[in-house]
């Protein structure tokens, strides 16, 4: 599942995000969602979230639970 639909992303989920500084390289950062920062129901580049460690980025994939 990709992270483009807000309804698929929930706090506490394990996700892979791309940080702002990693957008060119596409390097993914794993983490647990703390807050959802995107208000719209869909975003083509991924829903923006804050991880529990404070990092902010766009969800590229949602890890299987």
TrEMBL record:
Domain of life: Bacteria
Record's protein name: YwbE family protein
Pfam families: DUF2196 (PF09962)
Native organism taxonomy: Bacteria, Bacillati, Bacillota, Bacilli, Bacillales
């Amino acid at each position: 599942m990709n992270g483009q639909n807000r309804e698929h992303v929930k706090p506490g989920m394990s996700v892979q995000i791309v940080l702002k500084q990693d957008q060119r390289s596409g390097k993914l950062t794993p983490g647990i969602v703390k807050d959802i920062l995107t208000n719209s129901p869909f975003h083509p580049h991924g829903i923006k979230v804050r991880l529990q460690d404070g990092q902010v980025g766009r969800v590229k994939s949602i890890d299987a639970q």
